Amino acid sequence: MDVAHLELLRELRDRGTITAVAEADFRSPSAVSQQLRTAERQLGVRLVEPDGRRLRLTAAGRLLADGAVEVAGLLARLQRDLDLLHHSPAGQVSITGLPSATEALIPPLLQQLRDSGISITLSDDDVAEADYAGRAADHDLVLAHSLAETPAGAEGLLVQMVALEPLDVAVPVGHRLADRARLTPSDLIGEDWIGVPLGFPFDTVRIAIENHSGTELNVVQRVKDNRVVEALVAAGFGCALLPRFTTRARDGVRVIPLTGVRAERRVVALARPDRAERAAVRVVLDALTEIGRRLR
Hints:
Blueprint: H1 3-15, H2 18-25, H3 29-43, E1 48-51, E2 54-57, H4 59-86, E3 91-97, H5 99-112, E4 118-122, E5 141-146, E6 158-172, E7 192-195, H6 201-213, E8 218-222, H7 226-234, E9 240-243, E10 253-256, E11 264-271, H8 273-276, H9 279-294
Parallel strand pairs: 3-4, 3-5, 7-8
Antiparallel strand pairs: 1-2, 5-11, 6-9, 6-10, 6-11
Helix pairs in contact: 1-4, 2-3, 5-9
């Protein structure tokens, strides 16, 4: 049984199409199809079957794809233990994730790892909550956020909490609420609101505010970038939610704690279990968790 064939079936299960697998591996779809046919011939069973215009895994294919996760984890643990016999953890760790979390966590991480032999390859990715889990196929660690214990779609992944961050209400300086020490949902009745796209975690708090107050907020804009949100608030175009630890001080904006509804996000690191077994990845995970605890 070829480990490469098992990994191919796992990739097809996770990515959904031969084209997506080919793009991830920088191969042609025909090369991936050829490898599938070779695997079927060697194993003596059908691994895929037609499903409309696509292919889907057969029962045997699903069985082997699930088993590939266990095999990959075992091989990763063996490689980790072998490496640690003679070396300190080292190597490259790829990280992607939401910009506000990477801004707060990655600079101190890089400082902490400067002379460690571990290098970080970084990208940022601002997507809906349910889309972060899919990034774990292409990166060692994914920094995501959620108002729930686990981000949507993260089943089968390692999920490690890095930070618990309150979400505050941002209002323009000079606003009728700017001098308040705390705000409740009822205080926000009638306010223009600068929201996030549907499916993003902060929008869950907006819905909770509306349910608590019995009145819909007047959502005037929906944008992803917190810096743009800050600028719109400062210019007087509405109120918004901003994360407490990762929001910079900005002239023209006052941030005020929100009570009466749950208003906090969990910043978490997601990883495929086999990737998380790497010694260098474990070092980075531990460092991120330590840095997250220090955020204030």
